Amino acid sequence: MKNLVKKYSYLSYQNNVLYANGVSIESSIRNIKTPFFVFLPKHFEDNYAHLKESLSKNIPNLMISYAAKANYLGSVLSAAKNVGMGVEVMSMFELKLAEKCGFTAKDIIFNGPAKTEEELKLSSELGIDRVNVDSINELKQIEKISEKSDKIQQITVRIHPNLSKETEKRMLIKKNSKLGIDFARAVKLYRYASESPFLEPLGVHVHVGTNIASHSFYEELLRFLDDYIKELEQNHRILIKEINLGGGLTSRSELESNGFSLEKLGSQITDTISNIDNKLIIFELGRYFVGDSFIAITKVLRTKKTWGRKWVFTDIGANSLIPMRYTNYGVLPMQDKGKGQYCRIGGPLCLPVDVLSNESVDFKIEEGDYLVILNCGAYTLSMSEQFGYPRPAVYELQESGLLKIIKSADNLETMVNEAFQFS
Ligand SMILES: Cc1ncc(COP(=O)(O)O)c(C=O)c1O
Question: Per residue in 81-92, pLDDT tens?
């Protein structure tokens, strides 16, 4: 428990009660129906400031963007916009969210392996330059759209890099995945774009994993990219102005507890990439920003013993905290009642995978207690399912310590009516 509190700089126990950002939320949560999420905007902003400061010590031209899919609550997108980040989107829905939030074309990066014609037309109308492409057919469709409007569309190619077998094994997105295009075939896309009067190569894009906290991965990737860019520039006369290193960093608390240094990442980039003064380095991170800037509050519904093990069942489950296998959620008691029996914590679903934490916990837990789930801001709200229960509400922690609602929970009656909508 102590180690977990140390990992999250904004958490502390005072008189055995959990404090976040120096304020106790214990009294405010008692009037709110559990389970619910809490957004910590101050921590989100702090994560950004820390990243920017650490990377810009070494990188001369830097663009930091927020990957909307990690959590597209309006409050999160607005916080990203207000601190000056760009935004990475992958669909019409996310494009519309970015527009509504006030991001302009120069702030937007448009990704996705199968963009529709409608999406590509809107992106062209908006004047988005950072369109990441990973197929020749999409490139040809973009060419037709820009020819019709007599424009030159800049394009970045999302490649899958050549990594060692060991590194490939550790990455979520592997060589044979549907995402990106192999680096050798990608050369054809660059050549096609450079020969078309309606297209112009802009950059190279790589995104191969999530929860990354490894300097050796970046060392390998950057060495590959430097050679690859030299090959494009010297042998094919294709000028690469931008290097998009994708997302993939794990949440800040996890990075720090793994000894990963953002400042070192910045110097790895400048030490490896030739001609860095003439290149824009882009990051489009999701988990790093939102992972640990959310907590969830859940109530213990039931406890039981089976096969010699104690189980604790909470009212939040895998339908809200997905995809659990990618995330190390931490669990802490709202009120520290001292040491208890080792137990595992599960959600309320009739699913064996509905287990909240990889590790057992050994603090005292009783039915009716409140627990706090940590590191739960990335790919939870944006991927959550109803699966038997309404999706939880979301609150924002204000500086006063009060909680302000920013998204309502699903309404049970509406859920029932929707099931019978056309019956
Ligand atoms: C193309 C692309 N960029 C960025 C991200 C953000 O990744 P992360 O949240 O791991 O930083 C994703 C996530 O799937 C992605 O697909």
Answer: 999 999 999 999
